[in-house]
Design brief:
Order of helices and strands of chain B: HHEEEEEEEEEEHEEHHHHH
Largest sheet of chain A: 19 strands, parallel
Shape of chain B: globular
Number of helices of chain A: 4
Helix content of chain B: 10-25%
Radius of gyration of chain A: 23 Å
Helix content of chain A: under 10%
Oligomer: heterodimer
Structural class of chain B: alpha+beta
Strand content of chain A: 35-45%
Radius of gyration of chain B: 20 Å
Strand content of chain B: 15-25%
Structural class of chain A: mainly beta
Shape of chain A: elongated
Distance between the termini of chain A: 38 Å
Amino acid sequence: MKPSLTLLALALFALPAEGWAKTLSVSTGPDAQERLQTALIEAQPGDVVAIGAGRFDLTEGLSLDVNGVTVRGEGTEATILSFKDQRTAGEGLLVTADDVVLTGFAVEDSKGDGIKSKGADRIVYYNLRVEWTGGPKTTNGSYGVYPVASSDVLIDHVTVRGASDAGIYVGQSRNIIVRNSVAMYNVAGIEIENCYHADVYQNLAMHNTGGILVFDLPNLPQMGGHDIRIFANRSSKNDTPNFAPKGNIVASVPVGTGVLVMANRAVVIFQNILEENQTANVMLIAYPNPFNDPRYNPLPRAVTVRDNIYGRAGWAPALVDDVATQSALGAGALPVLWDGASDPSAPIRVTDGGVLSLGLTSAAEGVAAAKPAPADLSKGKAMAEPRRVVLPQSMEALVR
Amino acid sequence: MIRLATAFVGAWTLLISASPPPPRVSLPLILGETLPETLSDFGFFTGPARALRPSQGVVPYQLNVPLFSDYAEKFRFVWIPPGQKAHYTSDGVFTFPIGTALIKSFGYRADFRAPQSDVRLIETRVLLRRANGWIALPYVWNADGSEAYLKRAGKRIDVQWTQADGTPRAISYAVPNANQCKGCHDLGGTLTPIGPKARNLNDGEQLNRWVRQGLLDRAPPSAPTVPKLSDAHAPLGKRARAYLDVNCAHCHNRLGPANSSGLWLDWGQPDGVTLGMGKRPTAAGRGSGDMEFAIDPGHPERSYLLYRMQSLDPGIAMPELGRATVHSEGVALITAWIKSLN
């Protein structure tokens, strides 16, 4: 057979039904806003939107609503999408399609959230940076990366700094992995809220108000968060005073919290390095506000804390502003702080360190009613732990 | 610059008598796979483009409560393929047949105190019901109003006008991009119209007119209705709920783009946390304005829903899109309503 025919045959064979996947390249320069948004609109499934190196000064939020598109920059220090002068939209980049990959760029100074994805299944956030460049400020946007209402979420090698709520936030989703990521100078470093099945591991959370949060809130479409594993993370020196706008639940997070679990069922915290957190390395509490939602359970249930490596913690629990009271509460400098509320049928079990209980039996009681005393939560039978989260191989293959 | 409506009827008559038959709406373009580059391709209008004189079968309609769009004046038209009809439903948007086009143009008069003066057209948004669903296309008018061009990436346009009270206003008007169209026109992941619902079309006469014109299969006397905001005789609560329904609920409903907030402001939503009463911020961030509740009944000053309506900061403002000014009249209405709650 002649070579040319072979090539032709191969070419025909390789041709996908919908035509060649193509790369839409966007470089800096005049009209970058329009060219970038146009590429995000005109991309077809399988296409790559390749954003060149340099600084893109964007005035409008960007959005992507095409399944199967990869948005790729040339690196988190090379391709910078700056939203310093943003005039519209609640986030820098909004994704509302499935099977999207975001990789190799930075989002800076968005007015609202950095990157939000909603109803975006099998989304991959890989090698990204989201940052508010002026340091921690109440006027910074809320969430750095913000997948919500999605199934199969991978966040890997993502760095977020300065979020006035949570750096890496996953809400009302299921089947989630957050790993190899860095969260610094946020109110909450990493927050898993109202989620089912999440693995959070090999992350670094430092200089936030609280390092890693597992929350469940009432009056939302998806509630009853469960099956969350927090392991092999380092959460230390979370020493940034809370700068969240008041009214938001994270505004109540005390400075110096390593890992905080509020409500939820079946949570395991193990083999983390937790240190230099003035309130506690691990804090376990019920939802503190009144609520009217019969479907909601405010208690943390079946929570296991084991095999963590603890450094100094708990010397001044910042549950109140008064420093003398903080010192009194922190006299024992215990690594684990518990409000005292529990469900006997699904107990909390702590086997790796001392627990300070506030002795509150109901979520509605305030700190003023606390009767702090050490508690032993190491007895009782071990609860079954959540299974490992497995994402589709197609997603894992993208980050190998 | 042009004049709309009655002022042109005389001139049109002359034009029509001297020109070939008016163009017809192009059903193949509505149904096709293409994205026509110019608005005139569709043939929705006849005569000078900027006059928006509807072609045969293109019917103007009005809503009781329009979405606030930076004080732009809006001109709405519907076209349904001959021989077909929309199907009435009492609650949601009517079911429109394949081939339907909804055409909405936005423009400004330089001086709102002169209602007969010229309108500068800014954009025309077209919703097309194709075989596999609705698509949304934004067209932006050129300076002399002779043509509107497809701008899927959106556009910024400086607009000035004088308010009815004589106050001059100047804004950077944002034509939404094609994705932002879906940002509002989304219901459970499907692009859908928002306005043409029974309650918002029913002004006592319009539904019957649609039936007579062959656009709608039926208009039961029991059809619901929402009051116009200017209707001082209508109860405050009804006017406020109609305002929230139209301005917020396209996202803030059980299936809409903002459903995960748990704040649902649609017309049928009962009083309570989902309607914002005692609703704490979920992902509001700076939008909370240091307040605890979206609506604190009796206390507009402690209700962050109002705070967000009064902000122009993209990290705070609601709605997120299509608002570069504060709607003072809407703010006044919602303030009065929250104050009246207990």
